[in-house]
Write a structure and sequence with these properties.
826 residues; alpha/beta; eight-stranded mixed sheet; 32 helices; flat
């Protein structure tokens, strides 16, 4: 194990760092622990308090502190940390991402590390994935922090500004990552320092680190200001519903984009009064048609969103739960609302935004914990410069992971799935079934009901009950159906929450049995679901069902040329067919990594420009920069006001005017960048992406737009200052034409919902290697690809190398098709 670790480091390949130094320190912690047992609680607290410093804890201090923390954990909540938890805490204190299996005590290890940073003079924000976990963990670990003399707090969506301000002052603050981002955005737009709630970012300790840092890293958090309600014309909605697939519009092979055909364009233009959709005056109508078509064709109810309480609620695909503050941008939200005939929600203009990755990267120290990190070790190193430490389980993992079962069709897979669930349920073994969507969980629930298999369903429609439902999934005889298990954060104990419901019988039956209804796009997500079983040395098992018609295979692999030979039940056991699954998952992982890189490359320049603007804004807010600039640009007016009013009033007015114009310019710049990025996207659809480098074109235009932004803001501020209504009571913002937004709100968006460069490249690559269809008569010109535009795993490959990367059956497909021309008859 250590030899492998050293080789990985030598080759600079991500993997588990050498735990040897941590294990030695952990042994020293155990030795130091013995001398602490005679301390009273007050004495223990006093000893820790005397250790407080501003320069961080050195190695000796860490040993002493963790011995004290272990004793505090035993006294405060009755849990003495395992050696593995001490190792995890040490790794966190050195800025690592710690991989610990489910049930191994990540929460306690994280609390020790957070307290250690605090004792070393650092302020820590523990990033949780939702309000429930932030509150639960802060309250659960609270007695330990109190005994160590460390203050702790938490915030959630319902927290008031006063509560947030107080919470951020604590040594350790637990908060959902989205709330941290939203508070940063709001603080960026205050016009009085006293209105700020956040503190300078210092240490980010990220729970469910792979989910936050990788899966959600590219999600932009948005601060919007009220503008208007964005309704679609009824005639547009009705018209789109008459369009026919394959005739009036075409969907790309990945199911990510949809576009009108020439015939469809003619039909739409005729229906709207013989207009030309592509003339400037009709671009708004064209946009409405496009978003309505996207909403009607590509977004699926109970898969991408739910309709409840008269509102459209998006489903977070990473967690299978309602994304309470998430919505689609660019009119797509209104299009879905029109599709479902629910009231259209208010729209607004984007005042500012920040991605989760940019937010986390603003912290000088980043560490975190999760059950699955090594698989994304390269990305964690690439985007955050952090290494992974894999902590072995306290007890060996004895879970039995059965080989995946592959079927030809979805129907055959589902039939076998339900039969297998029935067979296992008859034994009384507890079963946890992981599905990919709300729709799938409800369909499976119907099938289980038909088979008279009692069960409970956990999906985005009843997520408020998730903790209670999941906690009882280990009770014998229980069948639990759940959407997307990633990030649930609730321990599943055999025998139920308190282990009092036939725990011994659950063990005899083989422990919790996890069944997946299909493979995920990433092996890491499969592992997260598997990890629900086999907690802390308990027995357990897992089995995944899949079919060649699953989205993973149809989207990320090519089945043409495959000659499957299923048995009577439709099951496939040959190596080539099973290899198709592994290939699809590898390609999906590569495509998602490339999507992350592409998205980050677009947001990186925007973040740099925002930093430049924020530097100027900070000087305006905290210094007299606005007064100095406007006194120079409008000297006569400035001197006149100072004579008439006191100088502090004039300075305050100048500050508000300058802040308004800086914020206004940034808002306009963001709108321009959004349009620019969409334009780059359209140009790529036209086929110029390979030769044009969209990101280079985007950066060139974005830089040109920003070059004069701050100077233009000062020019406009000076013009406003000359005419502004300023009295002894201060600036009349409304009368002076510099009003603040009447309302603001925050939400998340799905970045680039109309498809990505990686998606389009992957689709073209797949189309390029597909054998000709039987009815095809025209020769399709070969696709060419710029190396930089391909997913990393496919770069630097010539045609023969690319063929070698494909499953064996695909390499033979081209030869087969030459001999398989259809019979022709007159």
């Amino acid at each position: 194990m250590k030899l492998t670790s050293r080789f990985r480091r030598l080759l600079q390949r991500p993997g588990s760092i050498d735990l040897g130094p941590y294990e030695k320190l952990t042994a020293a912690v155990g030795e130091a622990e013995e001398s602490l047992k005679d301390l009273t609680d007050e004495e223990l607290t006093e000893v820790v308090t005397e250790m407080r410093t501003t320069g961080g804890l050195d190695e000796g201090d860490q040993i002493e502190f963790l011995a004290l923390a272990r004793e505090a954990g035993l006294r405060a909540i009755g849990e003495r940390a395992f050696d593995g938890q001490i190792v995890g805490a040490l790794a966190l204190l050195q800025g690592r991402i710690v991989e610990m299996a489910t049930g191994e005590g990540k929460t306690l290890a994280g609390a020790f590390a957070a307290a250690g940073y605090a004792i070393g003079g650092r302020r820590v924000q523990v990033m949780a994935v939702n309000d429930y976990l932030a509150q639960r963990d802060s309250e659960w670990m609270g007695p330990i922090y109190a005994l160590l003399g460390v203050t702790v707090s938490h915030i959630g969506q319902a927290s008031t500004p006063e509560e947030r301000r107080a919470a951020y002052q604590a040594d350790v603050c637990y908060a959902p990552v989205s709330e941290l981002g939203f508070d940063v955005l709001r603080d960026r737009l205050v016009d009085d320092v006293a209105d700020r709630v956040t503190v300078q970012p210092d240490v980010a300790l990220v729970d469910e680190a792979d989910s936050v840092l990788i899966d959600e890293a590219r999600v932009p958090l948005i601060l919007a200001g009220a503008t208007r309600t964005e309704e679609l014309d009824d005639d547009v909605v009705a018209l789109v519903r008459t369009l026919r697939a394959g005739l009036d519009y075409e969907i790309d092979g990945d199911g990510r984009t949809v576009a009108l055909t020439d015939k469809g364009t003619d039909k739409v233009e005729a229906a709207l009064g013989d207009i030309n959709l592509y003339e400037d005056e009709n671009l708004d109508r064209l946009t409405q048609i496009n978003v309505a078509l996207h909403a009607e064709v590509l977004l699926r109810r109970d898969v991408d969103y739910l309709v409840r309480d008269g509102k459209v609620s998006l489903i977070n695909n990473n967690r299978g739960r309602i994304a309470k503050l998430q919505r689609w941008p660019d009119g797509l939200q209104a299009a879905v609302e029109a599709k479902e005939a629910v009231p259209v929600s208010d729209s607004g203009e984007v005042l500012d935004s920040i991605t989760v990755q940019a937010l986390v990267s603003s912290y000088p120290t980043v560490c975190g914990m999760t059950g699955t990190a090594v698989v994304v070790g390269e990305q964690l190193q690439e985007f955050y410069k952090v290494e992974v430490a894999v902590v072995p389980p306290n007890k060996p993992n004895i879970r039995v992971d059965e080989p995946d079962r592959l079927y030809l069709t979805v129907a055959q897979k589902n039939k076998a799935l339900v039969e297998h669930i029935g067979e296992v349920h008859e034994t009384g073994r507890p079963i946890l079934i992981g599905t990919h969507s709300v729709e799938e969980s409800e369909q499976l629930s119907d099938q289980l009901e038909e088979a008279d298999i009692p069960h409970v369903v956990l999906n985005a429609k009843n997520d408020a009950e998730e903790a209670a439902i999941i906690a009882e999934a280990g009770v014998p005889g229980t069948v639990t159906v759940s959407t997307q298990m990633a990030g649930r954060g609730t321990d599943i104990r055999l025998g139920g929450r308190d282990e009092s419901h036939d725990k011994d019988r659950a063990i005899e039956l083989g422990g919790l049995y996890v069944i997946g209804t299909g493979l995920h796009a990433s092996r890491r997500l499969d592992d997260q679901l598997r990890g629900r079983a086999g907690r802390q040395g308990d027995p357990g098992g897992s089995l995944f069902f899949a079919s060649l018609a699953d989205e993973l295979v149809t989207r990320y692999s090519v089945t043409s040329g495959l000659r499957p030979s299923p048995d009577a039940d439709g099951r496939l056991t040959d190596r080539k067919a099973i290899g198709m699954l592994e290939h699809a998952q590898r390609v999906a992982d590569g495509a998602n990594a490339e999507l992350h890189r592409t998205t980050w490359s677009y947001h990186r320049l925007t973040g740099q420009q925002r930093s430049i603007l924020l530097d100027t804004r900070e000087k305006v807010l905290t210094e007299d920069l606005a007064a100095e600039e406007l006194a120079e640009r409008a000297k006569e007016r400035y001197d006149e006001l100072v004579e008439e009013l006191d100088e502090d009033t004039v300075k305050a007015a100048a500050r508000k005017i300058a802040l308004h114009h800086l914020d206004r310019k940034w808002t306009d710049h963001l709108a321009y960048l959004a349009d620019l990025r969409e334009g780059i996207h359209l140009r790529s659809l036209a086929g110029g992406i390979v030769h044009m480098k969209p990101i280079d074109e985007f950066n060139k235009s974005a830089i040109a737009s920003f070059d004069t932004l701050i100077a233009d803001a000062w020019t406009e501020a000076a013009e406003t200052f000359k005419e502004a209504e300023i009295t002894a009571d201060g600036l009349d913002e409304e009368a002076s034409g510099v009003p603040r937004p009447t309302a603001t709100w925050t939400y998340l968006v799905n970045d680039n919902p109309f498809g990505t460069e990686a998606d389009r490249i992957l689709g073209r690559l797949r189309n390029a290697i597909k054998p000709e269809s039987e009815g095809q008569s025209e020769e399709i010109p070969a696709e060419t690809f710029d190396q930089d535009e391909l997913p990393e795993e496919l770069r630097d490959l010539d045609d023969e190398d690319l063929a070698d990367e494909l499953p064996e059956e695909l390499r033979e497909a081209g030869d087969d098709t030459e001999d398989k021309k259809p019979d022709t008859k007159d």
